[in-house]
Write a structure and sequence with these properties.
The two termini are 56 Å apart. The protein has 296 residues and is α/β, with parallel strands linked by helices. 26% of the residues are buried. Helices cover 40% and strands 22% of the residues. A 5-stranded mixed sheet has the order 4-3-5-12-6, with helices on one face. The protein has a 5-stranded mixed sheet with strand order 9-8-10-7-11.
């Protein structure tokens, strides 16, 4: 058949089950005449009468009897495919989810998120993947289920949900002279700096407001993440920038926090995913659990 009509399959199942045009019509919610026309189409398509009169009833032909079981199986399969997915019982869910996040997020939040998942769904495993760059192809191809971080400018097709807001603070080794009093912008740029940048940039969010004051800091070291910033500042006189939440979690080691002398943009940390996963029950459950972990 070059013009496949799945309605014919449903009608054929009703006709072979009822062996009556009028009874099949009632089952299909059609008129008797419409069902008769459908039977005529089925006869033309199969090249077989399918149902023939026998007294006041209809009986199936040998070909109809031979295909009746397969017709029922196919009809049930189509109904299953076109039906909504069954309700999700997360206790029975067996699935791995990959979450892409930077090292600082994993350090601060992976333990409590994995504990919450294990409590609700013991069969679910979390895989935290590194975040070398903000590319969306992995989300499109489902190699990554969720990306957690700051939404990039090229993520217009993605769905996003804010988890928490943050801001930058300065850190320095304990005993560093800059901790003696709230530093001025001039004090801040008088020292060398270490910068966290996945792309190896020698600049950060504090540089634009410093430039507006005619000041430039000396960046001496670039590292891939905030834990490395804390390690470098703890062992040197360099100053670093980290999110405030990073300090609250006690992840800055032998360093101390200080307020920056200039204002920096607010950080909005979100979970993002590709719209192809919007309706997936397991994915929706995981997104809800992570959201509640930060808003509950």
């Amino acid at each position: 058949m070059s013009d496949l009509d799945l309605n014919l399959l449903v009608a054929l199942d009703a006709l072979l089950t009822e062996k009556s045009v009028s009874a099949a019509a009632r089952r299909l919610g059609l008129s008797t005449s419409a069902t008769s026309r459908t039977l005529a189409r089925l006869r033309a398509a199969t090249g077989d009468p399918l149902l023939v009169p026998a007294g006041r009833a209809l009986v199936a032909t040998p070909h109809a009897e031979a295909i009746a079981g397969r017709v029922r199986e196919l009809t049930d399969a189509v109904r299953t495919i076109l039906a909504p997915p069954p309700p999700l019982d997360v206790r029975d869910l067996r699935r791995d989810f990959t979450i892409r996040a930077n090292e600082a997020f994993v350090l601060l939040h992976a333990a409590r998120l994995s504990a919450a998942v294990a409590k609700a769904a013991p069969g679910v495993l979390l895989r935290f993947a590194p975040k070398p760059e903000k590319e969306i192809r992995s989300l499109r191809e489902a190699a990554v289920d969720l990306d957690i971080g700051v939404i990039s400018g090229d993520g217009g097709e993605l769905r996003g949900q804010a988890l928490f807001r943050d801001g930058f603070v300065g850190i320095a080794r304990i005993g560093h002279p800059i901790l003696a009093a709230p530093p001025s912008a001039a004090d801040f740029v008088a020292w060398g700096h270490v910068v966290a940048s996945r792309r190896g940039l020698f600049s950060g969010p504090v540089d634009a407001p410093l430039a507006a004051l005619g000041l430039t800091r000396r960046v001496m070291v670039v590292v891939p993440g905030f834990p490395a910033v804390a390690a470098v500042t703890a062992a040197s006189d360099l100053l670093g920038l980290v999110p405030r939440s990073f300090c609250r979690a006690g992840a800055i080691g032998a360093t101390a926090m200080f307020e920056l002398p200039v204002a920096t943009p607010e950080i909005v940390v979100s979970q993002t995913w590709h719209p192809r996963m919007d309706a997936d029950p397991g994915h929706r459950w995981l997104r809800g659990l992570i959201f509640e972990a930060f808003h509950g």
